[in-house]
Specification:
single chain, about 0% strand, mainly alpha
């Protein structure tokens, strides 16, 4: 089961009476010629990596190899605890987790480049903040990751996620697409 554009994806959703996330999960099973358990384990691992990359630098700041980045996520977290932020709790958490992921990336730590390393903080930042704020389960976040994967796949297939071609604006747009309702 594959789709070339959003219209085909939505047609498959309607035909199979399944959400975007499930269509993408089935696509991964079929085209990867693997079973559902392997695909689920891989996405669970993706979430584990995202959590570690977004949470570790808050408690244990890391410095980039060049020394330009390090400790900002902890500072943001301490600022958020004062409840003086202008953005509200949800956005403050998202920014903090995104910055922590970027610190992990800059210090050569393990991240999920989704869609690229340059924008790797956006998806985990927003997802983990929403999980914490709205009490989403890991299963619901994994469903959102499959949803975001479908959007990212369409961008890769029909446009680009290469920074040199589409720029960070394209990366951010793709990474933010996970916000679509949990279809």
């Amino acid at each position: 089961m594959d789709f070339k554009n959003a219209n085909e994806l939505l047609a498959l959703c309607e035909e199979k009476n399944l959400p975007v996330s499930e269509i993408m999960r089935i696509r991964e099973i079929e085209l990867g010629e693997t079973d559902a358990e392997v695909v689920n384990q891989k996405m669970t691992r993706v979430l584990e990596i995202m959590k570690d990359a977004a949470l570790s630098p808050i408690s244990q700041p890391v410095t980039s190899m060049g020394g330009l980045i390090g400790g900002e996520a902890r500072k943001l977290s301490l600022h958020a605890q004062k409840k003086e932020g202008l953005c509200g709790d949800l956005l403050q958490k998202a920014v903090t987790y995104a910055m922590a992921t970027l610190e992990t990336n800059a210090s050569m730590g393990l991240i999920v480049a989704s869609p690229t390393a340059g924008s790797a903080g956006i998806v985990p930042g927003l997802m983990l903040a929403m999980q914490e704020h709205y009490h989403f389960s890991d299963a619901e976040i994994i469903q959102a990751l499959f949803n975001a994967s479908a959007i990212g796949y369409l961008a890769m297939r029909n446009a680009t996620v290469a920074g040199a071609v589409g720029g960070c604006q394209a990366e951010v747009g793709v990474a933010s697409a996970w916000q679509l309702p949990l279809l």
